[in-house]
Amino acid sequence: MEDGVETQRIEGTPQGSPLSPLLSNILLDELDKELERRNHKFVRYADDRNFFVRSEASARRVMKSITDFLSSKLRLSVNQQKSKIGRPWTVKFLGYTFGEHDKSRVMPAKPSWERVKANLQEVFRKGRGRSQKQTIEEVNKILRGWANYFKLTGVNRRAAKFDGWVRRKLRSIIRRQWKTPKTREQKLVQRRLFKDKARKYAGNGRGPWFNAGTSHMNFALPNEYFKQNGLVSMFDIVAGNP
């Protein structure tokens, strides 16, 4: 589908089709055997592949020889834009990377964090005109999928901080939906703020994002409020909490 119109596919395979990994295994089996013959350490997932060598000079030599092998022997081209040489902690594989000082530590790569944040930003943007329930349901789908994929990486501290960002975005949306100072005052009083403080904060002239991070909005809409309304926690998922 392109712009809502069905068009004839002229190349490639449908995303998610079992045909794609099957063809990868058929086409790249000969390369796998060649790498084993050369005693190279490598890992492959479909057509995504990493090679591990001891030095930059070795990496450049291996990249050239493998590129030549793919081109001449298998008639396949290497995507130069996506291919690079670097330390394990400067490259990513399937969304993962390695810790710079702890060789055993595997973690989400920076683009993986940026991608989940961008996906959530789109949900939050639409959330201004939606019910809180709808927004939380969409947020939960993204958080569950991402956190379950990376749950074995030990990102508890980063996940807890990310949860805080998600809740602040939701508070910001709610504050924006309380459109007038009068409505904000009423809502804050309903959430157990003293009337004089509610009046002061309702008309402070600061924007939704600023107010979403203040003590009065955290008091009116505490973490437990969002938990009761069904918001999942990235921290609970990656930490293995029930």
- In angstroms, what is the radius of gyration? 25 Å
Could you describe the largest sheet, including whether it forms a barrel? 2 strands, antiparallel
Q: Calculate the terminal CA-CA distance, rounded to whole Å.
A: 40 Å
In the predicted model, the low-confidence regions spanning at least 5 consecutive residues are none
Q: What is the spatial order of strands in the main beta sheet?
A: 1-2
| Shape, principal axes of CA atoms | elongated
Order of helices and strands: HEEHEEHHHHHHHHH
Secondary-structure content class: mainly alpha
Mean of the pLDDT scores?
Answer: 90
- The number of distinct β-strands equals 4
| Helix percentage | 55-70%
By DSSP (H or I, 4+ residues per run), the number of helices equals: 11
Tell me the strand percentage band. 5-15%
